[in-house]
Amino acid sequence: MSEKRIVVALAGNPNCGKTTLFNNLTGMRQHVGNWPGKTVAIERKDGKATYDGTTLEIVDLPGTYSLSSRSLEEEIAVEYLLTEKPDVVVNIVDAAHLERNLYLTLQLIELGVPMIVALNLNRYADSEGVIIDTKKLSDMLGVPVVRIEAIDNTGKDQLIKEILGGAVPSTHPPHYGDEVEKHLAELEEALPDYTRWDIIQSLIHGAAEDMPVAAKSRIESTRKHLTDMFGTSTQEIFADQRYGYIAGILHDAVHYHKDSGGKNQSERIDRFVTNKWLGFPIFLLVMYAVFQIVFTIATPFMDLIETVFGDAAAFVSESLGSGMPDWAVSFICDGVIGGVGSVVVFLPNILLLFLLLAILEDSGYLARVAVIMDRIMHKIGLHGKSFIPMILGFGCSVPAVMAARTLETERERKLTVLMTPYMSCSARLPVFILLVGAFFAPQIQGLVMFSIYLLGIIVALIVGLILQKTVMKGESSSFVIEMPPYRIPTVKGVIIHALEHGGLFLRKAGLIIFPAVLLIWLLATLPYGVEYGSSESVIGMIGSAIAPIFAPLGWGIPEAAVAVLMGLLAKETVVASFGTLFGVGEEMLGSTLAGVFTPLSAYSLMVFVLLYMPCLAAMLTVKQETSWKFAAGAAVLMCVVAWIVSFIVYQGGILLGFG
Length: 659
Prior knowledge:
62% of the residues lie in helices and 8% in strands. By secondary structure, it is α/β, with parallel strands linked by helices. The strands form 2 sheets. The protein has a 7-stranded mixed beta sheet, sandwiched between helices. Strands 7-9 form a two-stranded antiparallel sheet. Helix 19 (429-439) packs across helix 20 (442-469). The radius of gyration is 29 Å and the shape is elongated. Keywords: Cell membrane, GTP-binding, Ion transport, Iron, Iron transport, Membrane, Nucleotide-binding, Transmembrane, Transmembrane helix, Transport. The chain crosses the membrane at residues 277-298, 327-360, 415-441, 447-467, 509-526, 538-555, 634-658.
């Protein structure tokens, strides 16, 4: 007997709690990948859950306000719903913002998908005095309506019961006024091969190219008639009719309690958080606190991992020293354990950083950062929306660069692509933690780390301003962003977010860093018989050849030159390269570097790693989003900027007496 299977698609507006519900239903049984046939910045999340012997295969569709196929998110959602035809579509609706959310609901009904409405965030609606009659709402929409709280298990059993019971398309498709409905009925009768959704979309956007000539003619004549009668475009006609229908739903199914005391709580907080004078200092204070917490809490766990890898290297060296050739012992201890261990030791910092960033994102604060930065971004011909890819750059430059495609103009997209890599991605974090920990006192480590991240933002803005004044002139387009209400993040949600990035970090350690470490070890031992990593070795000759380029920056030694060169593959390999080249484990690497760097030269190196071109994967993404010529120019620009700023930092520090 085959197992029963139900494919469930989760659809809803951004910030409606859709992904929280996905995490609640699937737990850790998730898969993250790309949408088939598309190279996109939007991840596809699939998960499985078993209830009463039935397997639910759950797909988390991109958050979208409508299905008009204007944005990438809308295109993906419509294509999936039309081609994959899931058994059930669960439309998550924000009860506190019902009018806006129901627009997508009506379009899903037009699409004719089997649907259940999950009314979420009711606690916020309750606090604002919004009272929703779910039975009346269900009757008017013609689909089941279940009151839930995605953050916990409220309504979860009832939602699962409805899913297992099967869903059907709405029994009450929305009525868009007598005039519009009369023509829809005529077209549905004349064009039986086309659904109501197809006909409405044809009336809005024009007949499809593959439509028969007679059908095209009928559609176009109806479009002209409606445009003449209403005096506006068919797109505006249907938008007005939908909102008119929603107004009727709200009038009958929603009431308001006059004595609500919690109304506009988010607005009261925003008076301070997005204040013209207080907003940016608060943002800086929050980011400083994040880095100070990362250092304070993660250090004991780092020490534990260092001890484990150090003991492992000592054990292997002691056990194999007498029975194996020196090169084999060196390969295992210096190459494998020393190289990879010097990177893995920073896993606690990675997990903690993303845990804190997830809290800031899920609480609704990061959306406010875009608003805070809007005033500054306008100075360089951009707007706050461009800062969103830059925020993503704190995680990884690849999705950050791809996220720039959501901007309206080519100039804004390209300028944002050029600025985004200056944000310090998580791959650079091990380099900074290593150098900050080795050269700066514990009480100022968070401040030093914060200064590096802040420098990335400042340099990005300066570069953007220069480009906007010279080769990329233009005005910014209008800026609209939703301000979600402040919410308490779920423990499960932030943990899953952190573990996803931690897993990515470990996979990178295995797929990129480990082979890079082996290559460095091999080049450091060849030709056979030379001293490991000496100037006579292949790696020593390469390092010696390029080291003079970095001498004015304060770290013109072959090991550092090779490390930044290998960092072009992945920034984590900078640390792994040091560990392999110096032939020491992670517990000794900091003290070893302290013998060849000063605090000023170490900070100069951090600045260069921050600003020079990102990893190979990120540069290939820049090429994919623009062109080879643009990507090559961007790479040169970033390396030149990195050298100049590092030079200013080091030479300026010497002049000020910090050398």
